[in-house]
Amino acid sequence: MRYDTELAPAIVLPRSRPDGRNDPLALFNEQSLDAYRSGMQRCVELVRHTLTRARNPCSGIEPQELQPAFQAIDLDRPLDDLEASLEELQRLYLDHAVYFHHPRYVAHLNCPITLPSILAEAIATPLNTAVETWDQSAGATLIEQKLIDWTAARVGLGEDADGVFTSGGTQSNLMALSIARDSACEAMPGHAGNRHHGLPSNFRQLRILTSEVSHFSVQKAAALLGLGYDAVIAVPSDASKRMDIAALQAALKECDEAGLIPFAIVATAGTTDFGSIDPIPTMAELCRQRGIWLHVDAAYGGGLLLSRRHRHWLAGIEQADSVSIDYHKTFFQPVSCSACLVRDRRQLRHITYHADYLNPRDQAEGGTPDLVNKSLQTTRRFDALKLWMSLRTLGAERLGDHLDQVIELAQQAYRAMRQRDDIEVLLPPALSTLVFRYRPDDVDDDGDLDTLNQQIRQTLSRRGEAVVAGTRVDGRFHLKFTLLNPMTRLAELVALVAEIARIGESLAPSLTSPSARPSPVWSQSSC
Ligand SMILES: *Cc1c(COP(=O)(O)O)cnc(C)c1O
């Protein structure tokens, strides 16, 4: 076995006893504890070995290259052997996994994760706690609740705030907008509420306003909520990609004139592409004047709650009616770990359903804390333990410092990239993203630049050298760095940008458009 030689020889893997009554590999219980320990040790060694060998953030494999290995696998014929399963897994998964902690993984909002949070998984998974009701979780419920209260206090939502852990920003946004919709509809004269009766007859007039660069999950939520994508008004953003308040006011005025009902405004605190933070205080004031629900999507920028240097960038968030926070982004926690918070816990009634077998009404009235009462999910992982272990072991300031470091890194990288005349950076960074493209003097056709930058991205990923994101701004393809690794050094990013330019230089001559003059032969790179 390829990974075998470097593994600690002392680990004796448990063997399956398919005919025996106590097969240690079959079900976890107090009789499989030795097998649990040695199996975990083996897996730890496997991860250790794989990560020590990994030079690159990815292998560069294409789907059609990996697919055949899966066709050969018959799920109805088990290997009956842990060693053999692990060896197979190495080929199918570990050899090609994408490493978010690698300095040249700069694509999406995936972060390196704290060690205590990983250890939390080693506890929560075997115990398999489900945090839906007190009778399934006890202490776990209180751990989650304390983290919710702590986060709400950091936001400044006040005494009546509450919330719940979710699978991610997408679910948090759906939950918040669902509550906002139901709360608005409940107040409509002649309508007895959505929960029993469904949407009111004028539901086609309902509108959500959000900036044009907000997250697509707002559109998705609108569709899932029965309102449709078209119920979302994309408000233009200003030059720094923050919601344009004049445009918001104009949009609200148009709603009035057309008899539409704007029931929620979504402020993004950290847009996914630009990290830009909408002017929350002004938006909050508008919402207050008009009785509109303010949801702040802080899936990306939420980590600023822990920042010693930049907490003030979130000013106004304390006025939100609901907030989405992704701990699995800027709190450096493993996927999934997120929360949806509301200013007024009574609003959570819109998603409560009392089932006799699980969370009967009298149980809630008796004060039993059943988290299912405020969640879209029923069976739910104890994701809170990861954040808990990070906070208890490392503390909030260490997490906040990590975010401050990547913000600083983004600013340094911006200055360095601006010194190159073949790299066009769109904006100074707001949080930790940089949107840019390779743009040499002699290529100015937009279509050519799109092709060139797409090819650069593919080349980097195919070689496994770097995972860089791509996005479109005003229709034009751009590259994007999302920096979330506080251990990454500026020199590593500068080298990556130089490599991007080198690849671009070698690809430019192959462009077909007449506007792209062929480069002289001697400037072509050999790779
Ligand atoms: C990432 C992100 C989301 C979606 O969060 P998931 O955890 O991926 O579901 C929503 N909004 C913003 C602004 C984000 O950056």
TrEMBL record:
Cofactor(s) the record lists: pyridoxal 5'-phosphate
Record carries keyword Plastid: no
Family matches, as Gene3D superfamilies: Aspartate Aminotransferase, domain 1, PLP-dependent transferases, Type I PLP-dependent aspartate aminotransferase-like (Major domain)
Keywords on record: Aminotransferase, Decarboxylase, Lyase, Pyridoxal phosphate, Transferase
Pfam families in the cross-refs: Pyridoxal_deC (PF00282)
A single Gene Ontology CC term: cytoplasm
Gene Ontology terms for molecular function: carboxy-lyase activity; pyridoxal phosphate binding; transaminase activity
InterPro entries: Aromatic_deC (IPR010977), PyrdxlP-dep_de-COase (IPR002129), PyrdxlP-dep_Trfase (IPR015424), PyrdxlP-dep_Trfase_major (IPR015421), PyrdxlP-dep_Trfase_small (IPR015422)
Modified residues (N6-(pyridoxal phosphate)lysine): 329
One GO BP: carboxylic acid metabolic process
Similarity annotation: Belongs to the group II decarboxylase family.
PANTHER family in the record: CYSTEINE SULFINIC ACID DECARBOXYLASE, GLUTAMATE DECARBOXYLASE-RELATED
Stated name of the protein: Aspartate aminotransferase family protein
